[in-house]
Amino acid sequence: MTLKFVVMSDLHLLPEGELSLTLDTSARLERAVDEVIARYGDADFCVLAGDLADTGNPAAYERLKTIIARLPIPVHITLGNHDDRQTFLDSFGAQFAGETGKVDKVIDIKGYRIILLDSSEPGRVDGVLEANQIDWLIARLAEAQDRPVIVILHHNANALHIHADTIRILEPDAFIAALKTHPDIRQIIAGHVHLTSTAIWHGLPFTTLAGGHYSVSFDVDRPEVPLRRLEGPGQMAVVVGTPDRTTVLFDDFINGNSVIDTVHV
Ligand SMILES: [Fe+2]
User: Fold this and answer.
1) Choice between 194 and 259, residue whose per-residue pLDDT is larger
2) Using CA atoms, how far apart are residues 200 and 163, in angstroms rounded to an integer?
3) Residue 186: is its pLDDT beyond 80?
4) In terms of residue numbers, what domain contains 100?
5) How many angstroms does the Cα of residue 183 sit away from the middle of ligand 1?
6) Cα 1 to ligand 1 centre (Å)
7) How far is the CA of 86 from the centre of ligand 1 (A)?
8) Burial level of 226, CB count in 10 A (0-12/13-18/19+)?
């Protein structure tokens, strides 16, 4: 009984005819969907980890709905800083709002609990987990003390020694303390930074994936140096879980390392 799921993040969809920088983000998502159909049609589900729409435009959410309808597996969704929660809920339906009021969710499958947390906060680029979300997380972890847990959210909580460290979850202490109430957190997976990374922090395993939009090139511990946006890779993560092992693989469904421009966050 092997758990397998795909994580996509940072789709940054726009209305028809609009490009993001030089990138056609809808075409990139179409390629991601083609990749899932070709290679992961037997996966248990797909998670979209936020920044679904580049500017929260209703037409972008409708476009998303149309493109992901081709996915042969269930889709679970949470939001990022580029999203507009109300516009998303108007388009996808109020049932996507969790009991916290944000787009949080629990998935119990094949001996695992997967928890999606909505770290978006209107008007902010950095990430926020509200006190009621932390309480909800602690309660959901308490129910699953006998199972491994994977947490997925848009914003990275851990600093990565890069220019974008100013826009992560800037007050992560309550989040870390909540995670520490569980004995078997297998992964905390985020998008947001458009970069692949893994880390151990407070004894917990943190991963970020590059996602579907531009990727970035960076300078370590030189916050004054802006990031360079790259055409690729366009990347999804593939998570494989057995009782004793949780593996995160990265599938670069679009390659490319041409610099588009530099970015100061
Ligand atoms: Fe993003």
Assistant:
1) 194
2) 20
3) yes
4) 3-263
5) 31
6) 33
7) 18
8) middle
User: Which two structure tokens, joined as six digits, stand for 71?
Assistant: 């996915």
CATH of residue 90: 3.60.21.10
- Kindly tell me the burial class for residue 225, based on how many C-beta atoms sit within 10 Å of its own C-beta (0-12, 13-18, 19 or more): middle
Q: How close is the Cα of 258 to the center of ligand 1, in Å?
A: 18
Domain count for the chain: 1
Q: Which amino acid is at 203?
A: G
| Cα–Cα distances in angstroms (integers) from residue 20 to residues 29, 60, 74, 79, 157, in the given order | 13, 12, 27, 19, 26
CA of 7 to the centre of ligand 1 (A): 14
Q: CB-hemisphere CA count at 13 Å for 237?
A: 28
User: What pLDDT is attached to residue 263?
Assistant: 85
Tell me the C-alpha distance between 36 and 33, whole Å.
5
Question: CA neighbours within 13 Å on the CB side: how many for 217?
Answer: 12
- Total-model pTM: 0.96
Q: Which residues contact 33 (CB under 8 A, 6 or more apart)?
A: 67, 68, 70, 71
**Residue 12 Cα to ligand 1 middle (Å):** 7
Question: 82 C-alpha vs ligand 1 centroid, how far in Å?
Answer: 7
